[in-house]
């Protein structure tokens, strides 16, 4: 048995290093390399690609635009989705309602992208960062609902009963008891939505106008071979900042035991 | 009995309204478009015809695209599962306590960031000018760049396995963790050795995890267009076809017919998974 | 030579870290016997069962079945079968598939599987449930399925790990009788683990009492109940009055004891020396309402409390010697709190607590 255990441990370690971390490490290492291509041996240490990225206006604008989109998406999705999470918990055995709410979560992003494109164009709406957010919210709603509902489900229903027993009406109970207990899940849902929206490429690709978000900038730059070192440096920046954010988020999530309804 | 409209119905109104307006009405819109009379360069006219569907379902080219798309999606799912299952098994059954979750966290960190960056990384590793070819050339193992890694279906699958791994490991880990230890002991007590216990108890009971992994991997693949475009070479999937028809060719009715077909496949796959693979039972 | 015992444990010892779970357990179980391992939680009784089933290996000692040492034999090759505490029925299989599981993995022919499952289902009266899912069964029905699943394998020794725990009292009584019926009809060897001494009394031929990993007493329950050899065993099996006393005289198979304020006459035990301090016990139901002239094995006291228990009433009273004692009378006696009662008991009911 210990032989099998050892093999499994080795397999896990190998996959995590070679399949998951190696490609990312390569990018970070080459971002400090003098040469343009990913060629060995390394040509020498430089930070010039970072200087180039940091003076690249398009890159900066794309980051700002991504932030704007992510912020709009997150506030919209929370505003609409959080109340629905409470409905979802009560109505979770109502199959048509569950299907209605979860369908956007199950269809490929491409479908959300193209139906939004066609819809906005048919209405004659100008494509912009706002249309990007409007389409992002479609997918974010079920995401928020699943995360928040899982938390609400795991709460002891006696807290609410106790509060009402002690004389608080429904509204006061909701504000004083239910909401504070649900708050960590709402925070996690907000962060996950923000990161997802910041990063989303496929839906954005269809619903964006003339502006660029970060993934769109990346997509455009990937087609120019001369841009390789700049992308490498930009990617490394995002990798490092993103890792810190995701690490903090995920450890918070594990500590608070916040999951997703579908999996529990 | 009178049906009372409770506060919980009222809470659902904003979401219902939003999804109706921005999701369901747009779907109806493209359903309408899919019956219009199609033509390239945005020259399509209102009307009612089944032409677009007939063309999409009968053309050799699209039939091939559908087959390739499903093959790639299925192979990706299978490859991911083969890699993810031993890992999830190790994390859930061998490691104690929360260590498994911490390792999953370790896998999630690099994967919750932009997937174009990761595609970019793989391009520079697997490509003709890439890291691996470069390494093999330097070491003198090969004389000219190997193309099989890159601009191929295999590259697409490798990138997808990389992308999808945590989405498979996580649900498998959760279901494997939720199987009571006693069931393994009972199986052994009744005469099952380790192999038989795995196939008769562990695997059937982890089906819900496999089903969720399927939803997270197979279905999104049906609409993927960026990965094949960047690392797939001549690989042309359904996502690429729909994108091209909407944005380059401009034949909305035909593109809409293709999208509706994709949507129907998605619905059938999700329905089957929920109905027969026991996902529902997980939260009852 | 006589046939070897169905199950034999020889000096079985098991420690976790530096906590001793089992210390030097030696026990033999005859073929066809229903033995109950009785002990409080944490006494090591589940560990003992796991060692017999092969889920744990002892640090020292041997486990033998029909004379053959089975240490280091994995569970799936042992001729034992376990009914688990939480039953461990397979949720993805229906009743038939659960019962047939062990036969299937042993590659029994299909007809034989069907025949045996039918036999077990009839034995336990679950033939009508055979196509149900496990989740559609009540607690009692699940017990029967779990039992059937083990019985079809005709194990040399059946192990039952407190399987009746989650049931309510009435159903539990029913299942106890049912288990006993099945065991008798099969003449099978069963090892049953529980912390409930009433359960042990209802079902078993013999009881083994375990505490802190040590086997304190083995025998039929009546003997152990009436003549326990330690205070733990006496208390574990029911209520009793305990006294500390000095041996004042040993003669003619009788021993005279002095608690300091009260004189007791008890049957003698070998090895008693005059002057030594020992523990004695009197069961409450052995105490009778009676007047006795000589000042031995009698007392008088004021009733402090009454507890009705159906046909009996438990009477707590403070004696003239300064003890609080408990007696059990039939409820027809008219006794009220505050009454003065006179009681007496016979010498053979004064039990000297000493293990050999």
Description:
The complex is a heterotrimer of chains A (264), B (284) and C (356). With 264 residues, chain A is an all-alpha fold. Helix content of chain A is 78%, strand content 0%. In chain A, α2 packs across α11 and α4 crosses α6. Chain A starts with a helix and ends in an 8-residue tail after the last helix. Chain B is 74% helix and 0% strand. Chain C folds into 2 domains: 228 residues, P-loop containing nucleotide triphosphate hydrolases (Rossmann fold), CATH 3.40.50.300; 114 residues, RNA polymerase II/Efflux pump adaptor protein, barrel-sandwich hybrid domain (OB fold (Dihydrolipoamide Acetyltransferase, E2P), Beta Barrel), CATH 2.40.50.100. Chain C contains 8 helices and 20 strands. Chain C has a 6-stranded mixed β-sheet with strand order 6-7-8-3-9-10, with helices on both faces. A 5-stranded antiparallel β-sheet of chain C has the order 13-12-11-14-20, with no helix packed on it. In chain C, α2 crosses α3 and α3 crosses α4. Classes of the chains: A mainly alpha (264), B mainly alpha (284), C alpha+beta (356). At the A-B interface, α1, α3, α4, α5 and α6 of A face α1, α2, α4, α5 and α6 of B.
User: How many β strands of chain B by DSSP?
Assistant: 0
Give a short account of the largest sheet of chain C: 6 strands, mixed
Q: Give the tally of β-strands of chain C.
A: 20
Number of domains of chain C: 2
Query: Any idea what the shape of chain B is?
Result: globular
Structural class based on helices, strands and sheet pairing of chain C? alpha+beta
Rg of chain B, nearest Å:
23 Å
Question: Which two chains form the greatest contact, residue counts included?
Answer: A-B, 89 and 91 residues
Order of helices and strands of chain B: HHHHHHHHHHHHHHH
CATH class of chain B: Mainly Alpha
Order the strands across the largest sheet of chain C as they lie in space. 6-7-8-3-9-10
Give the C-level CATH assignment of the largest domain in chain C: Alpha Beta
Averaging pLDDT over every residue of chain C, what do you get?
88
The named CATH superfamily of the largest domain in chain C: P-loop containing nucleotide triphosphate hydrolases
Number of domains of chain B: 1
Per the CATH scheme, the topology name of chain B is MetI-like fold
Provide the gyration radius of chain C in Å.
Answer: 25 Å
Oligomer: heterotrimer
Largest sheet of chain B: none
Which bin fits the share of residues in helices of chain B? over 70%
Subcellular location (chain B): Cell membrane
Transmembrane segments (chain B): 12-36, 65-91, 103-121, 153-176, 197-219, 254-274
Organism (chain B): Caldiarchaeum subterraneum
Membrane topology (chain B): Multi-pass membrane protein
């Amino acid at each position: 048995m210990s032989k099998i255990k050892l093999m499994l441990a080795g397999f896990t370690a190998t996959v995590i290093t070679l399949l998951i971390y190696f490609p990312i490490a390569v990018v970070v290492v080459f971002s400090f390399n003098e040469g343009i291509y990913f060629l060995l041996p390394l040509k020498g240490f430089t930070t010039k690609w970072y200087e180039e990225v940091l003076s690249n206006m398009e890159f900066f604008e794309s980051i700002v635009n991504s932030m704007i989109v992510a912020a709009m998406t997150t506030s919209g999705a929370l505003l609409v989705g959080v109340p629905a999470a409470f409905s979802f918990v009560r109505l979770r055995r109502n199959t048509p309602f569950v299907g209605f709410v979860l369908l956007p979560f199950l269809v490929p992003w491409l479908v959300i992208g193209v139906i939004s494109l066609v819809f906005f164009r048919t209405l004659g709406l100008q494509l912009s960062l706002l249309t990007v957010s409007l389409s992002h919210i479609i997918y974010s709603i079920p995401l928020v609902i699943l995360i928040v509902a899982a938390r609400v489900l795991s709460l002891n229903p006696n807290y609410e009963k106790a509060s009402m027993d002690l004389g608080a009406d429904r509204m006061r109970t909701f504000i004083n008891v239910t909401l504070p207990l649900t708050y960590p899940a709402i925070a996690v849902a907000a962060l996950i939505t923000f990161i997802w929206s910041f990063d989303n490429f496929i839906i954005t690709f269809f619903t964006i106008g003339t502006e660029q978000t970060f993934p769109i900038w990346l997509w455009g730059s990937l087609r120019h071979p001369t841009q390789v070192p700049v992308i490498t440096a930009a990617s490394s920046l995002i990798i490092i900042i993103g890792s810190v954010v995701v690490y903090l988020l995920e450890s918070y999530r594990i500590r608070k035991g916040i999951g997703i309804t579908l999996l529990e | 009995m009178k049906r009372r409209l409770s506060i919980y119905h009222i809470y659902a109104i904003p979401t219902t309204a939003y999804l109706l307006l921005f999701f369901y009405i747009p779907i109806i819109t493209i359903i309408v478009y899919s019956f219009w009379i199609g033509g390239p360069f945005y020259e399509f006219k209102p009307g009612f015809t089944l032409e677009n569907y007939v063309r999409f379902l009968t053309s050799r080219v699209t039939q091939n695209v559908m087959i390739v798309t499903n093959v790639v999606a299925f192979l990706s799912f299978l490859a991911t599962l083969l890699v993810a299952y031993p890992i999830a098994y190790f994390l859930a059954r061998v490691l104690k306590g929360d260590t498994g979750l911490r390792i999953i966290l370790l896998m999630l960190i690099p994967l919750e960031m932009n997937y174009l960056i990761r595609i970019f990384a793989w391009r520079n590793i697997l490509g003709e000018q890439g890291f691996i070819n470069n390494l093999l050339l330097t070491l003198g193992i090969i004389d000219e760049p190997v193309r099989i890694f890159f601009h191929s279906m295999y590259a697409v699958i490798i990138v997808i396995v990389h992308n999808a791994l945590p989405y498979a490991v996580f649900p498998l880990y959760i279901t494997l963790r939720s199987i009571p230890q006693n069931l393994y002991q009972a199986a052994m007590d009744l005469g099952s050795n380790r192999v038989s216990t795995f196939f008769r108890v562990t695997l059937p009971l982890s089906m819900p995890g496999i089903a969720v992994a399927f939803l997270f991997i197979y279905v999104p693949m049906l609409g993927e267009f960026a990965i094949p475009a960047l690392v797939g070479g001549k690989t042309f999937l359904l996502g690429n076809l729909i994108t091209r028809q909407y944005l380059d060719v401009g034949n909305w009715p035909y593109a809409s017919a293709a999208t509706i077909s994709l949507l129907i496949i998605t619905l059938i796959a999700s329905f089957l998974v929920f109905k027969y693979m026991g996902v529902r039972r997980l939260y009852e | 030579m006589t046939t070897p015992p169905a199950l034999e444990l020889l000096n079985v010892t098991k420690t976790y870290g530096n906590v001793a779970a089992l210390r030097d357990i030696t026990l033999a179980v005859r073929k066809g016997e229903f033995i109950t391992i009785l002990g409080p939680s944490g006494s090591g009784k589940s560990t003992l069962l796991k060692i017999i089933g092969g889920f744990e290996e002892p640090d020292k000692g041997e486990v033998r079945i029909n004379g053959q040492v089975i240490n280091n034999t994995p569970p799936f090759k042992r001729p034992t079968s376990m009914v688990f505490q939480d039953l461990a029925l397979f949720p993805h299989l229906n009743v038939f598939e659960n019962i047939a599981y062990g036969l299937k993995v042993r590659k029994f022919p299909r007809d034989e599987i069907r025949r045996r499952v039918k036999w077990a289902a009839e034995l336990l009266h679950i033939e009508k449930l055979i196509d149900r899912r496990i989740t559609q069964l009540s607690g009692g029905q699940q017990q029967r399925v779990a039992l059937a699943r083990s019985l079809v394998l005709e194990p040399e020794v059946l192990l039952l790990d407190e399987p009746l725990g989650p049931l309510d009292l009435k159903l539990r009584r029913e299942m106890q009788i049912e288990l006993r019926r099945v065991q008798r009809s099969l003449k099978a060897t069963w090892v049953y683990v529980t912390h409930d001494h009433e359960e042990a009394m209802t079902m078993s031929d013999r009881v083994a009492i375990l505490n802190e990993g040590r086997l304190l007493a083995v025998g039929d329950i009546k003997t152990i109940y009436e003549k326990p050899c330690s205070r733990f065993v006496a208390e574990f099996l029911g209520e009793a009055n305990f006294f500390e006393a000095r041996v004042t005289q040993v003669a003619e198979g009788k021993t005279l004891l002095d608690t300091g304020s009260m004189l007791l006459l008890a049957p003698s035990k070998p090895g008693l020396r005059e002057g030594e301090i020992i523990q004695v016990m009197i069961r409450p139901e052995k105490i009778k309402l009676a007047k006795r002239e000589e000042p031995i094995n009698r007392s008088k006291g004021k009733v402090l409390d009454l507890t009705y228990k159906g046909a009996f009433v438990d009477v707590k009273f403070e004696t003239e010697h300064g003890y609080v004692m408990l007696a059990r009378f039939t409820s027809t006696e008219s006794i009220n709190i505050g009454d003065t009662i006179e009681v007496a008991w016979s010498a053979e009911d004064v039990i000297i607590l000493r293990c050999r």
